């Protein structure tokens, strides 16, 4: 083979290898070709070089020429290495290597890119982290693939850190591929219009995509007009991209804003845009952020007829979005449904009409900006010789997010003072001062921290000084203080070194550009090269401003504000809290409120926690056995319907106080739901028709609902009523009472309990047009109980056991909450791993919970230490949250511990393993105990379902009274349930979910309640028994009596306890308004009268009395007064107890002769909370009447304490019935009234909280008083303990004699 042939073969082989190396198996280009190795030496530049053999041309990976790499003259953070790729190129990876055979390498660096060699932009990973990790030695090549490819001609690498025992040393490689595009340049007067072909215009999907770059913050990009004079307008306004919908209507309107996306888009860098019309949706994408919006019906079948590019357009009466602001900048790869519009303009296509001067290259003005990255930076410039003439002018432009910062300062030698031009509270201010006084102050502008470019001009001439902001707003002052500056003067921008000037203000953080002195532009590139002035802590030839609120990390409608280095979320009025408004303020269901000890009332519930469903206001009905959530609608009352010959049907629609997604979530999460549906009829039929179609029906279920043809109490689809199911209808030939069509009132009522058909959304009633037809209907509120999530639990009884679930999804925000109880001191609750990242929550000791994770910035731990043991077999709550701002951990009700995230750190949590609950992948440090109600981002994990199929784990976890039993008050007893607990109030004088509701009644002088303990015939069944043995089973050696009363009567009978042996105990108020306790424990001995020293008990106020006797020792306490102690001398046994009477006494033969008329006098007032040992006679009469309770006279249930003490749970109750304004419509549901007046809610809550605090203060005082030394009215031989309570059997007909050592403790 000849030499020429060999050369041709070699060239062919090289070309083939290049082609094969840059193409995949399917012929598509693989963009990973090395780009640096073959570049010419002239395409490398650097800030400096240590020597000619350390020049930038030697900075090629795996090359050893020269000194084996590039090293600058000085090793500091102002050095850089730049590569010119000769044309715009797609860059996908970068690799670094240290200088060959040395100790010189980089450990971290920044990557910058540019199209022009100016206006550099920093590449950021995850929109946050800017620094790349470098090398650990001089030989290893470390490559980083870019998450998003960069398209640029110039790349610049800036060293941040290097080997501390060496200096900066670098070899570099860049990987990528060729990039092609079609570009058009618009000068503010040029534009074109494209008219799609008829066939193309009827595409079901329309897509417009483009890239643009500009220095102008406003301008019209696109105007798309379709049929019906509807149009879409895409405009740039203040650096944001806005999408408007307009229609030619009679009122001149700028249109409806559909989407606002992006920020700082006037930075002279390329930004990608994509607009998609998908039937009823519009998707707008700017760079990597997408927003979707639903469009009106007119736009769902809308198609583009004309597409205008680059110019303001208006049609008919439409008002232009941006008047006289055409686009000024460059567009690239403008595609409409894959049609290249710029290429059509180039080809002079008939579908395109162009106007103005448009070029097909992107000509960019050079603008060098300076970034002040921290408050310690400064730019120092020398004065001008021309300033000696007396005219001084300084101009600049700035942009920042900070409210304050120094822009300019210089010394005034003649005045021995200084001039300061600075931002304060978003305004521009000028201050001239000496060391002891202020000579001049001026201010101008407002809201200058909006991130936009603002121009500033400072001018001084003769005795006139002025500052101007944005050319049209300024301040001028006549002053005798001349700005006597010379060429020796030094100007400091942004800050100043401490040794050279005085700066009482905060340093500037932001960007400066277009700095000029007396009209002469300052060459900032000379400053960068140290040829002019001086600087520190600056980035020159770039503006590094970042909009941390676009896209906003504030969730749930939180408002984002920012400074230069961070952002803040205002969560007020959102219902959420935390650094990013991620966590809800409210509980997820009524069950959770109950288990915090709250009573019935209105509460906000957030059914999905941190999820997208908003909190809703519901009524929580805390009954003794169930916790109901009640959701009202606009008509829950019985509504009459009159017959009318003019109408065949009546339709009723029900609007609920909760939104659709809120309703659906409540129904799905509940174990049971019901809704009352009633129809009262007289000659009005429901289903009975000749043609089989029903007269009436209702619509229910999710969404818009479905027609239902069954009635309350019947099965879905049955076309029956409750009586048809029970086979007891008025006419057995029909399945509903009303279908019998009787001329008398009947009703078909019942509960709808099939959750798939709830809620009832509308009701249609027919058969109303006949004469004498009458009807009424009622649709009750939606009521649900039982929460599938709150009690979902698993018990881990082996350290190696665990449950596994899919990977935790929480790249930017994640919250985890659960309850646990254990007797062990350590164990892992939860763990999820990634390649490097992880997240874990564990009990590290008996008093410490640790939340740890790593998102790439290194492991971080948040710890909560408690002062009490966490392994006490009580339920404890844990809540952990991690977001882009912070990580926090809360245990029980202790203050949350937070740890701030690094300002420019990695933010994405990348996990890939399964989520382990109760253990780890290594099966070590497993948790032993119970985990309950585990929620991730508001979604409950079904622990019980997974536990049923997992060895070493059991579903459910009993033993709730140990944690929640404290909520059962007033001698209520906690009862364990499979899912939770309940309070047994059978031995309490109170009722309600926690035995805390007052049971009280109003008495008149003739009112009497007698509770029969033993009937005489029960005691005489055994005829051979002697009298002494008949009553021996009901002999007491002690009593516990408590009651509250309110009266103005004295004397008055409160309580009488009678005996078969003519023994008794009487509690009364004597004629002096004092309390007397009368004991007669022996029929042959006199009555012993124990008189309290507390006076004026008949004052109409509520008073509480507690009496305790053990043998001969009696203690009496009235309200919060000191306890009074007495001793009985006659006897200590109360024999043959027969009955307990309140008010007027029917049998008075055994009363003391000195109290004539007392029996008939009775009691007038209010009694509540009456308890004699375990018998509650007043509660029995009002709530559980039976043959043992005899009531005579008027007895009206009331509330004795309503005006004297606050409900301790009212602070948690949003509203009660009495809270509603009197002007509210009686038919309007309470929930709607509450929602319509949020100010009233706030006021009521504030008042209730105040009352609650007062109640707590009174309780605290009561406890303190109880601890005081009690006086002894009589000489005592013995003193019982205060906490003794003398038991009395809950079975009223089976009293027994308690032993001396039996005790019962009050809560």
Write the layout of secondary structure elements.
Layout: H1 3-21, E1 33-34, E2 44-46, E3 81-97, E4 106-114, E5 121-122, E6 131-133, E7 142-162, E8 171-178, E9 183-187, E10 191-194, H2 198-201, E11 205-213, E12 219-226, E13 230-237, E14 240-247, E15 256-261, E16 271-278, E17 281-286, E18 289-294, H3 297-300, E19 304-309, E20 328-336, E21 339-340, H4 341-346, E22 352-355, E23 369-372, E24 378-382, E25 392-399, E26 405-412, E27 417-424, E28 427-434, E29 438-444, E30 454-461, E31 464-469, E32 473-478, E33 490-493, E34 510-517, E35 520-521, H5 524-528, E36 534-536, E37 538-540, E38 559-562, E39 567-570, E40 576-577, E41 583-584, H6 590-594, E42 601-605, E43 616-622, E44 627-631, E45 639-642, E46 650-653, H7 660-669, E47 670-682, E48 697-700, E49 706-708, H8 722-726, E50 746-752, E51 760-765, E52 774-779, E53 782-787, E54 793-796, E55 803-805, E56 814-821, E57 827-833, E58 838-845, E59 848-854, E60 860-865, E61 876-882, E62 886-891, E63 897-900, E64 915-917, E65 929-936, E66 939-940, H9 943-947, E67 953-955, H10 961-964, E68 973-977, E69 980-984, E70 1000-1003, ...
Parallel strand pairs: 79-84
Antiparallel strand pairs: 1-8, 2-3, 3-7, 3-8, 4-5, 4-6, 4-7, 9-20, 10-19, 10-22, 11-16, 11-20, 12-13, 12-19, 13-14, 14-15, 16-17, 17-18, 20-21, 23-34, 23-37, 24-33, 24-36, 25-30, 25-34, 26-27, 26-33, 27-28, 28-29, 30-31, 31-32, 34-35, 38-39, 40-41, 42-43, 43-44, 44-53, 45-52, 46-51, 47-50, ...
């Amino acid at each position: 083979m000849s030499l020429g042939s060999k050369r041709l073969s070699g060239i062919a082989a090289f070309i083939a290898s290049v082609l094969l190396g840059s193409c995949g198996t399917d012929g598509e280009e693989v963009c990973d070709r090395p780009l640096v190795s073959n570049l010419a030496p002239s395409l490398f530049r650097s800030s400096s070089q240590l020597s000619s053999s350390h020049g930038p041309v030697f900075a090629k990976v795996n090359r050893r020429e020269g000194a084996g790499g590039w090293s600058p003259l000085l090793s500091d953070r102002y050095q850089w290495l730049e590569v010119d790729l000769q044309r715009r190129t797609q860059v996908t990876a970068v690799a670094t290597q240290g200088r060959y055979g040395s100790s010189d390498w980089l450990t971290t660096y920044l990557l910058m890119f540019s199209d022009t060699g100016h206006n550099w932009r920093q590449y950021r990973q995850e929109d946050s982290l800017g620094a790349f990790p470098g090398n650990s030695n001089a030989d290893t090549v470390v490559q980083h693939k870019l998450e998003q490819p960069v398209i640029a001609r110039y790349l610049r690498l800036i060293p941040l850190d290097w080997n501390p025992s060496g200096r900066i040393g670098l070899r570099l490689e860049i990987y990528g591929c060729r990039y092609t595009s079609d570009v058009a340049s618009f000068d503010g007067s040029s534009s074109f219009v494209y008219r799609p072909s008829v066939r193309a215009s009827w595409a079901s999907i329309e897509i417009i995509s483009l890239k643009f770059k500009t220095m102008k913050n406003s301008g019209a990009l696109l105007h798309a007009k379709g049929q019906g004079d509807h149009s879409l307008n895409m405009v740039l306004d203040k650096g944001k991209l806005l999408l408007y919908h307009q229609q030619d209507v009679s009122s001149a309107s700028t249109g409806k804003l559909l989407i606002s996306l992006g920020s700082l888009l006037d930075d002279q860098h390329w930004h990608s845009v994509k607009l998609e019309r998908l039937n009823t949706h519009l998707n707008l994408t700017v760079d990597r952020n997408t927003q979707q919006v639903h469009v009106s019906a007119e736009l769902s079948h809308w198609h583009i007829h004309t597409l205008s590019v680059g110019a303001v357009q208006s049609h008919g009466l439409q008002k232009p979005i941006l008047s006289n602001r055409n686009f000024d900048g460059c567009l690239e790869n403008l595609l409409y449904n894959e049609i290249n519009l710029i290429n059509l303009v180039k080809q002079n296509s008939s579908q395109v009409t162009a106007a103005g001067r448009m070029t097909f290259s992107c000509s960019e003005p050079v603008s060098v900006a300076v970034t002040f990255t921290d408050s310690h930076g400064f730019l120092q410039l020398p004065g001008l010789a021309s300033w000696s003439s007396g005219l001084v002018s300084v101009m600049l432009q700035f942009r920042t997010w900070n409210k304050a910062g120094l822009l300019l300062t210089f010394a005034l030698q003649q005045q021995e003072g200084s001039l300061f031009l600075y931002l304060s509270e978003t305004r521009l201010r000028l201050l001239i001062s000496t060391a002891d006084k202020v000579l001049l102050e001026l201010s101008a502008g407002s809201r200058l921290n909006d991130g936009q470019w603002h121009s500033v001009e400072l001018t001084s001439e003769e005795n006139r000084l002025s500052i101007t902001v944005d050319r049209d707003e300024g301040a001028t002052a006549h002053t005798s203080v001349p700005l006597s500056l010379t060429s020796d003067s030094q100007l400091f921008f942004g800050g100043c070194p401490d040794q050279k000037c005085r700066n009482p203000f905060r340093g500037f953080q932001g960007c400066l550009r277009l700095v000029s002195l007396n009209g002469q532009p300052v060459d900032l590139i000379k400053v960068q090269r140290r040829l002019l002035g001086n600087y520190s802590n600056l980035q020159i030839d770039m503006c590094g401003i970042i909009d941390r609120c676009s896209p906003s990390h504030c969730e749930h409608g939180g408002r984002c504000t920012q400074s230069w280095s961070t952002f803040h979320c205002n969560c007020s009025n959102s219902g959420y809290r935390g650094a990013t408004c991620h966590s809800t303020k409210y509980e997820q269901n009524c069950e959770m409120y109950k288990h915090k000890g709250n009573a019935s009332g209105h509460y906000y519930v957030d059914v999905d926690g941190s999820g997208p469903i908003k909190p809703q206001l519901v009524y929580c009905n805390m009954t003794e056995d169930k916790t109901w959530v009640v959701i009202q609608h606009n008509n829950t009352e019985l509504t009459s319907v009159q017959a009318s010959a003019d109408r065949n049907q009546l339709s009723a629609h029900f609007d609920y106080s909760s939104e659709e997604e809120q309703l659906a979530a409540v129904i799905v999460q509940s174990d049971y739901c019901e809704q009352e549906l009633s129809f009262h009829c007289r000659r009005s039929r429901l289903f009975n028709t000749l043609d089989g179609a029903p007269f009436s029906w209702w619509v229910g279920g999710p969404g818009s609902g479905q027609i239902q043809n069954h009635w309350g109490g019947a099965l879905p689809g049955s076309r029956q009523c409750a009586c048809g199911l029970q086979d007891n209808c008025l006419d057995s030939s029909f399945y509903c009472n009303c279908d019998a069509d009787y001329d008398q009132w009947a009703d078909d009522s019942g509960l709808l309990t099939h959750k798939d058909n709830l809620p009832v959304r509308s009701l249609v009633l027919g058969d109303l047009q006949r004469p004498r037809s009458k009807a009424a209907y009622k649709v009750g509120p939606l009521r649900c109980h039982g929460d599938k999530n709150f009690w979902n639990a698993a018990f881990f009884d082996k350290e190696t056991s665990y449950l596994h679930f899919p990977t935790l999804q929480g790249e930017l925000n994640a919250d985890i909450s659960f309850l646990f109880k254990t007797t062990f001191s350590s164990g892992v609750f939860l763990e999820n791993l990634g390649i490097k990242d992880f997240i874990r929550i564990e009990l590290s000791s008996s008093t410490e919970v640790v939340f740890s994770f790593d998102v790439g910035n290194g492991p971080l731990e948040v710890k909560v230490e408690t002062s009490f043991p966490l392994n006490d077999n009580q339920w404890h709550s844990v809540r952990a949250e991690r977001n882009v701002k912070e990580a926090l951990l809360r245990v029980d009700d202790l203050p949350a511990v937070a740890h701030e995230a690094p300002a420019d750190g990695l933010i994405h949590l990348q996990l890939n393993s399964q989520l382990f609950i109760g253990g780890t992948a290594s099966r070590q440090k497993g948790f032993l105990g119970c985990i309950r109600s585990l929620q991730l981002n508001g979604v409950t994990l079904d622990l019980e379902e997974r536990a049923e199929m997992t060895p070493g784990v059991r579903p459910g976890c009993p033993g709730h009274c140990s944690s929640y039993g404290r909520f059962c008050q007033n001698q209520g007893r906690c009862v364990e349930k499979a899912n939770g607990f309940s309070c047994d109030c059978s031995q309490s004088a109170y009722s309600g979910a926690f035995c805390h509701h007052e049971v009280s009644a109003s008495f008149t002088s003739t009112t009497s309640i007698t509770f029969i303990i033993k009937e005489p015939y029960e005691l005489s069944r055994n005829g051979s028994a002697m009298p002494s043995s008949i009553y021996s089973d009901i002999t007491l050696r002690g009593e516990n009596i408590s009651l509250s009363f309110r009266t103005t009567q004295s004397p008055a009978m409160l309580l009488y306890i009678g005996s078969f042996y003519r023994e008794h105990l009487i509690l009364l108020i004597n004629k002096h308004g004092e309390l007397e306790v009368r004991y007669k424990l022996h029929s042959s001995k006199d009555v012993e009268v124990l008189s309290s020293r507390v006076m004026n008990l008949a004052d109409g106020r509520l008073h509480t009395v507690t009496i305790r006797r053990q043998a001969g020792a009696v203690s009496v306490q009235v309200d919060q007064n000191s306890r009074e102690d007495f001793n009985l001398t006659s006897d200590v046994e109360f024999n043959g107890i027969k009955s307990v009477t309140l008010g007027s006494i029917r049998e008075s033969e055994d009363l003391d002769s000195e109290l004539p008329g007392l029996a008939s006098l009775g009691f007038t007032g209010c009694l509540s909370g009456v308890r004699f040992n375990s018998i509650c006679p007043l509660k029995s009469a009002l709530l559980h009447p039976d043959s043992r309770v005899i009531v005579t006279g008027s007895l009206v249930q009331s509330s004795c304490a309503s005006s004297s003490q606050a409900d301790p749970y009212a602070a948690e109750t949003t509203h009660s019935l009495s809270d509603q304004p009197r002007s509210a419509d009686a038919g309007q549901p309470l929930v709607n009234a509450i929602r319509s007046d949020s100010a009233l809610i706030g006021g009521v809550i504030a008042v209730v909280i105040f009352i609650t605090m007062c109640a707590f203060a009174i309780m605290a005082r009561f406890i303190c008083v109880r601890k005081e030394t009690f006086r002894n009215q009589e000489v005592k031989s013995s003193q019982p303990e205060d906490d003794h309570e003398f038991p009395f059997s809950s079975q009223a007909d089976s009293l027994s004699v308690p032993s001396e050592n039996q005790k019962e403790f009050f809560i």
